[in-house]
């Protein structure tokens, strides 16, 4: 493709293209030490015709009213902006995306009038559809912050110290009727206010990751059209129930340091779920077999399941996986079970016979760390290798003994018995010999008894004396 390099004429114009990169209607002034955009903007035809502008990583403190331009994407991220003039963007009629992330903006910096178009054309709705305000110093929003942005589709507030969504902030968010994407990650939230998600009826993607929620907020059930939810990195210990979200298709529950259990019917109200990403939860040991299943309200006893096509359970602490968790494992497009603490006994035989070959045929890269951890004799053995060897795993007994040690244990018992027999006989012989020795000394002792000994002792002694000695006594 022909690359057109736009060259600036120095005489009477700015030297923009001498300090920045100008290529294909793209102006890149990243890391140029700029303090004011207008220093380059004045008298420059290049900026008037540019459609993408990057002024990132500079020292800009204030955004003043910008001259007319055809720009559609304007990035001012990673500056030091703490002030924006009223109607600063009013001349950017075609602006669709504005990135103000990683600056020093506050609620006061975001005066509603900064997005105002102009006094003569107040009927024209704002054209901006994507706004990034992440990683600023925003603790709250003024109620009418976005009143000029009725067409806004995507809003990012990640990394701001909101802590709570107060009434003013809630009002500001609720004033965005066309909003489809909302990012509130890493904002120290621990709850959502009632009815926050009721007004943005078209909200499809919500990111609440890396916050301080200790339970699933019930207000999620007011998200009418929500399709993707990221609830990762929250300190929840047990997931017992998710509120009803009739449109939710993708759910992320990753890097949750306290999560140890997913209970019965936990996701039974997520009937159209298609993707479940539950990974890197170091304490997650069990997922109830009925976690996804549900029953209809017509009284039928039959179980139903959502048609999940992507299931990622990698790098948890799972030892067992019940085959009843899903109704159709064969329709999975992606299955990742790596990095768990799989117990290789007969209960998990289906991992070897069914799931391992399924993963091998579709995503063999997901088998690099799909190994046994227990019993100890099988630790580190690849589950896929067990399938290739047509290996049938044994069952643990009632006391949870390790069957792989049975042969060694029996041999040990036999050797012990063989060694014990001569040892026991030797002890018995020693005891018998010692008894004979004691009898001998007992006879000698009685022969030297005193003549004053009682008659019954003499009579007893005389029984063991030789005949010649008895004769001499008479």
From TrEMBL:
The record's listing under Gene3D superfamilies reads: Ribonuclease Inhibitor
Give the source's domain of life in one word. Eukaryota
Q: Name one GO cellular component term.
A: plasma membrane
Q: Which UniProt keywords apply?
A: Leucine-rich repeat, Membrane, Repeat, Signal, Transmembrane, Transmembrane helix
Tell me if Methyltransferase is a UniProt keyword of this record: no
Q: Which Pfam families match?
A: LRR_1, LRR_8
Membrane-crossing residues?
408-432
What the entry lists under InterPro entries is as follows:
Leu-rich_rpt, Leu-rich_rpt_typical-subtyp, LRR_dom_sf, LRR_TM_domain-containing
Keyword field contains Signal:
yes
Enumerate the PANTHER family for this protein.
Answer: ANTIGEN BSP, PUTATIVE-RELATED, CHAOPTIN-RELATED
Name of protein:
Leucine-rich repeat-containing protein 70-like isoform X1
């Amino acid at each position: 493709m022909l690359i057109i390099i736009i060259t600036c004429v120095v005489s009477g114009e700015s030297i923009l293209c001498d300090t920045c990169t100008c290529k294909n209607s793209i102006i890149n002034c990243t890391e140029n030490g700029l303090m004011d955009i207008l220093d380059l903007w004045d008298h420059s035809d290049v900026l008037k015709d540019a459609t993408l502008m990057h002024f990132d990583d500079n020292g800009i403190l204030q955004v003043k009213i910008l001259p007319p331009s055809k720009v559609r994407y304007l990035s001012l991220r990673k500056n030091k902006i703490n002030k924006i003039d009223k109607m600063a963007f009013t001349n950017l009629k075609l602006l669709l995306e504005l990135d103000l992330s990683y600056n020093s903006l506050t609620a006061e910096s975001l005066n509603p009038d900064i997005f105002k178009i102009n006094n003569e054309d107040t009927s024209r709705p704002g054209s901006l559809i994507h706004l990034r305000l992440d990683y600023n110093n925003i603790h709250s929003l003024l109620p009418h912050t976005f009143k000029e942005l009725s067409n806004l589709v995507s809003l990012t507030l990640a990394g701001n110290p909101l802590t709570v969504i107060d009434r003013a902030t809630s009002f500001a968010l609720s004033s965005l009727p066309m909003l489809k994407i909302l990012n509130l990650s890493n904002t120290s939230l621990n709850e959502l206010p009632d009815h926050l998600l009721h007004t943005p009826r078209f909200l499809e993607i919500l990111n609440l990751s890396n916050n301080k929620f200790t339970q699933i907020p019930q207000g999620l059930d007011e998200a009418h059209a929500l399709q993707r939810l990221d609830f990762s990195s929250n300190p929840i210990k047990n997931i017992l129930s998710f509120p009803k979200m009739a449109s939710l298709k993708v759910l992320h529950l990753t890097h949750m340091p306290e999560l140890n259990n997913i209970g019965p019917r936990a996701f039974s109200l997520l009937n159209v779920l298609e993707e479940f990403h539950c990974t890197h939860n170091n304490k997650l040991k069990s997922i109830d077999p009925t976690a996804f299943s549900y029953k209809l309200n017509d009284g039928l006893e039959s179980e139903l399941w959502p048609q999940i096509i992507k299931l990622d359970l990698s790098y948890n602490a799972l030892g067992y996986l019940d085959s009843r968790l899903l109704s159709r494992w064969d329709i999975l497009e992606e299955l990742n079970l790596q990095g768990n603490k799989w117990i290789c006994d007969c209960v998990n035989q289906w991992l070897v016979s069914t799931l391992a070959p399924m993963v091998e045929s579709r995503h063999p890269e997901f088998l690099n760390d799909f190994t046994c951890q227990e019993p100890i004799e099988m630790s580190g053995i690849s589950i896929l290798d067990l399938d290739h060897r047509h290996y049938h795993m044994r069952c643990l007994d009632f006391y949870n003994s390790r069957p792989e040690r049975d042969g060694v244990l029996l041999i040990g018992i036999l050797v012990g018995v063989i060694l014990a027999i001569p040892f026991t006989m030797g002890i018995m012989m020693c005891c018998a010999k010692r008894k004979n020795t004691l009898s001998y000394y007992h006879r000698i002792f009685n022969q030297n008894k005193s003549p004053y000994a009682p008659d019954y002792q003499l009579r007893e002694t005389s029984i063991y004396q030789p005949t010649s000695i008895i004769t001499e006594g008479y």
